[in-house]
Automatic annotation (TrEMBL):
PANTHER family: G PROTEIN COUPLED RECEPTOR, CLASS C, GROUP 5, G-PROTEIN COUPLED RECEPTOR FAMILY C GROUP 5 MEMBER D. It comes from the Eukaryota. It comes from Capra hircus. It is found in: Cell membrane. This is G protein-coupled receptor class C group 5 member D. GO terms for cellular component: extracellular exosome; plasma membrane; receptor complex. Residues 16-261 form the G-protein coupled receptors family 3 profile domain. The chain crosses the membrane at residues 20-47, 59-82, 94-115, 127-150, 170-193, 205-225, 237-259. The lineage of its organism: Eukaryota, Metazoa, Chordata, Craniata, Vertebrata. Belongs to the G-protein coupled receptor 3 family. The keyword Cell membrane applies. The gene is GPRC5D. Its main location: membrane. GO terms for molecular function: G protein-coupled receptor activity; protein kinase activator activity. Keywords: Cell membrane, G-protein coupled receptor, Membrane, Receptor, Transducer, Transmembrane, Transmembrane helix. It is a multi-pass membrane protein.
Length: 337
């Protein structure tokens, strides 16, 4: 059965290989991930129309872009299940880094906005957050385009390179993604400091997502560069290692970040959102103190008005009496003279 499958499908034989079932398992997880991501995209589109708080709404376009990146990651998994050839190699080397850079850039932009919100400041506009995410990921796109163009102009050297050279180039291309991951990790830690507790839960989600992603990346890069060679499983295990890390990280993005964010967004819509721009609600004691002051002002305003009018009238009478006395004294002096 295995030989028939291999002969009939060629580079696609992992899609139907029942002996090495990693291909079937990963393509199933990737297909389910695509369906779930599309459903989450539709849910975000539905909830975006019901959010009235500017601080919440400003990050929704960036999260929508993040979901598009996750959708691309699930689709990219099929390029690693299919064997490396002249068609799949450019797709792997270009999209892997670009899609992960886009996802981590969106997380970085969200974390940067949270740094302001947890300190009670006004949120960035949605265009600013979106431009930060796109702009930060643009460098990885340029790097990947230059590398793939250079290799393709030399006659498609992917199929002629040794497995070790392919792995080294693949990891070196991801140095900027590793930098973005580390930067997002440290920025998300700064969201723990601030008086506004309601925004810190978003920072904790980003922190947990990036932390688990770092662990995944350390494991798969170690296996790709050292583990497979020491276990004498190179290049047989190279594609499965990368594909497992890819699908796992995409599911981490969904389960640790997007799904909790969607739940928070849904609860805020159900409970009723605060006024636009209200980035940090006042503490309970301060709200009650202000309410008491407002009530006292309303109660005292009529009395204060009457007192003011009486004082004004009394002052006017005194001034009039004084003026009359001055005039009378002048008349007396004139009569005496």
């Amino acid at each position: 059965m295995y030989e028939d499958c291999k002969e009939s499908t060629g580079d696609y034989y992992f899609l139907c290989d029942t002996e090495g079932a990693w291909g079937i398992v990963l393509e199933s997880l990737a297909a389910v991930g695509i369906v779930v991501t599309v459903m989450l995209l539709l849910a975000f589109l539905f909830l975006m129309r019901r959010v009235h708080d500017c601080a919440h709404w400003s990050v929704l376009p960036t999260q929508f872009l993040f979901l598009l990146g996750v959708l691309g990651l699930f689709g990219l998994a099929f390029a690693f299940i299919i064997q490396l050839n002249e068609q799949t190699a450019p797709i792997r080397y270009f999209l892997f880094g670009v899609l992960f850079a886009l996802c981590f850039s969106c997380l970085l932009a969200h974390a940067s906005n949270l740094v302001k919100l947890v300190r009670g400041r006004v949120s960035f506009s949605w265009t600013t957050i979106l431009c930060i995410a796109i702009g930060v990921s643009l460098l990885q796109t340029i790097i990947a385009i230059e590398y793939v163009t250079l290799i393709m102009t030399r006659g498609g050297m992917f199929v002629h390179m040794t497995p070790y050279q392919l792995n080294v180039d693949f990891v070196v291309l991801l140095v900027y993604v590793l930098f973005l991951m580390a930067l997002t990790f440290f920025v998300s830690k700064t969201t723990f400091c601030g008086p506004c507790e309601n925004w810190k839960q978003h920072g904790r989600l980003i922190f947990a997502t990036v932390l688990v992603s770092i662990i995944i990346w350390v494991v798969w890069i170690s296996m790709l560069m050292r583990g497979n060679t020491q276990l004498q499983r190179q290049p047989q295990w190279d594609d499965p290692v990368i594909c497992i890390a890819l699908v796992t990280n995409a599911w981490v993005f969904l389960l640790l970040y997007i799904v909790p964010e969607l739940c928070i967004l849904y609860r805020s819509c159900q409970q009723g959102c605060p006024l636009p721009g209200n980035a940090c609600p006042l503490p309970t004691y301060e709200r009650s103190f202000r309410a008491e002051n407002q009530e006292l002002s309303r109660d005292c305003s009529p009395k204060l008005g009457r007192i003011t009018r009486n004082l004004t009238l009394e002052k006017g009478i005194r001034m009039e009496v004084t003026w009359k006395k001055v005039q009378m004294s002048k008349i007396r002096r004139m009569i005496q003279t």
